[in-house]
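User: Small ask, check this?
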Amino acid sequence: MLVLGFRAGANLLPRPAACELALKGYHAGWARAALAQSKAASNKIGRGPSVRNAFNRLKQKLTETFGTLNKSNQILIIAVCAILVLFVFLWLVDKLFVYFLAKSYVSEIADVFNLNTHLAAAVSFAIFMMFVYLLSLSFSFARKSRIIGVLGLAAMVIIHSLLLWQGTQNQFFDRSGRAIKCYILSRDGVVRYMERAGIDPITGRQCQDVTPELLERLQEYARGRRPELILEDEPVFFDQRTGEPIIWFWRAKSGDIELFNLMGFHPESGEELRPITSAVVAEWKQQWLWKERHRHPPNRVDPLTYAFFDPKTGEARVWYWRSPDGEYEFYDNPGFQPSTGEALIPATKAVLESWKRGTEKRCYVITRDSVTYGSKPGIDPATGHECRSLTPGVLEKVREYEKGNRPNRVTATEPIFFDVRNGDPAIWSSKDAAGKISLFDLMGFDPETGEELLPVTPKMVAEWKTQEEEGRRKQRPPQQVDPKKIIFFDPATGKPLVWFWRGPEGEYEFYDNAGFHPRTGEPLTPITKGVIRAWKQEAADAEMRRQQVEREQRERTERQEREQQESSARQQREAQAGVMCDQAAANPSDPRKPTDTPGVSYEALKDHSAEALEVCQLAIEKFPDELRYKYQHARALGFSEPERAMAIFKQLVRNKYPAAFDNLGSLLLRRRDYAGAISIFKEGVQLGDPDSMVSLADLVERGYVPVANPAAAKFALLSRAAQLGHQGAQRAMEQQKIELQQQQQGRASQEQQEQMMMQLFGTILRGFGR
């Protein structure tokens, strides 16, 4: 460190001063000795403790030497070293500060303009170099350079702010999603966007932050859309994705809340609408429930089961009307009493207690002259009659009995048995010794038997209806019925409800009443279990015979339809056999295949060879003279029966069908008959079969076909096959062309090479022919 400090100080001082200091006490000879020792120590690195000992000795020597210097020289050396360290530190801090300043400078611009990361890095380095240059000019001793540096730095700061302004003037959010603008609505449909939230000094309105959901609606408002009143019963108040309000409200002076689907101003009051809040939603729902409840007319309720007051607010939920006799009627809504038209009054605690005191007598006893009341239902010990429960509906009838009205027989065919308002009995009944039920419109006593009339019950009503139906049934003539849709016996009594007649051929007819057969005049017989069993058995046998006939008819029809479909399909397949064979097994490189048929590769044909065999066999039967269908049939047959396929290929080769040569040659190659395969391939090449050209080129490359220039021969074959549309040859030709070009680098141009190749191809073909 001392040596480095000495050297740095010497470099900083003028040369004469450095020499003078060296002469005055820096002991250049000692420094050279120390340097020699350090080099010797460095040469011993890796020798274990000897290296550490050398460094320790050097350190000790430096310390002893530094201690021999006078105090002024020691201070000078320490000061020079401190200045050097401080200079290096300041230089590093300066460069790091400028670098990160440039990076921050570009980072803000990159975020605003969405620059690519690598482009932003490149710009950062450029700005860093410009900052360093301008900063160095700012501290220059030349006045002109300092002016250029200061103005350049100021221009960069100003340009930075202008770029950020240009980039954010049409943006509403920063990269973190924070709103950078707020909005003010105007009544003329203009939306003003401001940069700072708070009170707008022009309109005096609050400038509200822009959110992604609000931005869509603000754009709709600017395009001319205005808020519309929401009349739905259950609107969606907040966006389910973000929780932002999507409904605005206005509160009238009466406290009523109106909801709108867009921000803006109320169409009547002109006041600005405000975004909905949870508290306003709860208040609106309470308002809606109150209006919904008061929308329907008042209905009478049972005070014994209905809650008089709201458990949350304590407000009355019941309205009442009191008759001149002191009787109460309670309703669930405000309104008017339906009989008198008097207004209903909200119930209070005092009204509830008054009603309870008036209902302490909970039962009544009918006597022949009047009515007595009791507090406990059951047998009245004074009269021996039952003290029956007193309800509001029964109380009205009791009041009539007290006034002197007596029960009258009900003759209506469909009477009303229960009060529709409260469900209390509205009819009383009695039953004679024969079980016949009689109905009366008031409580009291039966005028014939003197027994007390009883209030009707659901069971009594059902029994009376059955009785009436039985009476009406006996009075009407018998009607024929469907035995599958009726009940044969009364479930309560077991009596027959059906009568039957059986014809001379054993057929059954069923009727719903006793009487005589309308055609023969024979009396109808009541149904019995034995008759039902016999009828069901005969019906089952008849149904079985009918199902058998239908099944045979259905099977015959289905068989005819199936045969017709198979015949139609066979005819259609025969008519389309040629096209289907081409589509299923055509060779993509076959020159004689239809031009609109792409063909099927050898690998793809393997997956559906059975289907191809079937359609191509039909095509051969339909067109026996067409060699293409025989070739395609043999091509599909090669997977399952290669021997038969080879025999067909040989026949096709004799008939000079070009595409068959490559298939036959490939089969010969499988048997390692290379001479026969090469001969077949050569003949296929002469007939223009691109597959034979590719196969022969492969054999040339592998050395089975001796030629003077194998690469040129292969290229010529592949080039010709590529011209004929062979896709594999087209791909291979490019690679082969590269190899051939490497062999013939002395040629003048590519066009001359291709011409030479075509000439060579002709020579090769002539050589193959010989």
